[in-house]
Amino acid sequence: MSFQGRTAIISGGTRGIGRAISLELARRGCNIAFNYVRSRDSAASLVSEISKMGCGALAFELNVAHHSAVAGMVREVKERFGSIDFLVNNAGIVRDTLLLRMKEQDWDDVIDINLKGAFNLSKAAAAAMLKARSGSILNITSVSGIHGMSGQVNYSASKAGLIGLTKALAREFAGRNITVNALALGFIETEMTGNLPEDYKSEILRQVPLGRFGNAEEIASIAAFLLSADARYITGQVVQADGGLAI
To answer: Residue 84's pLDDT is what?
Structure first.
């Protein structure tokens, strides 16, 4: 599954799953552009790692919820690398609490980053893909968007929205040879899950048939397959990578 000379945009690329996908695609020869919000040091470190592999790397400090900033990022990536072949909508946040305690800002922040951000990037990147009549989009969603989770009405709604976005775009873009799929994740070992209380993690593990959390590198390998030429006949699908949690 060579990605030699191709270009991918990955939102939220500096940590966890986004970072693992960035490095996996770079190992396969792909130029990588990614955004980040906070850590310039982490962004610089990732650029350095990708560059050492012989691939191009661009980092953008911006919020994916800001339409004009995203459009500018995509233009610059196209100018620098000549094409936009892959898009991974990975950026996401949580603001968990029960509905009656949830502030309006908690709702807005999660929907803006997790769902509007994917809309902004998909719209900007699709222009280049449609012109080239080629491309692949992968949306990182969650089993919370399939089954819903108590205390996550904002997060579950945003991730369910990504599933709807995936299916609608798959229909819109299929005629131009562009695939759109989603990865619905369970509990993956990242900074986010590392902050969960131990008793809560133990309770969750009892519900996972495989008996463990996934890791970011496993998810990156699945993502690479879904973006690759080997998966060109797969579109509009939601692939669950959750250890059996949502069977």
So the answer is: 98
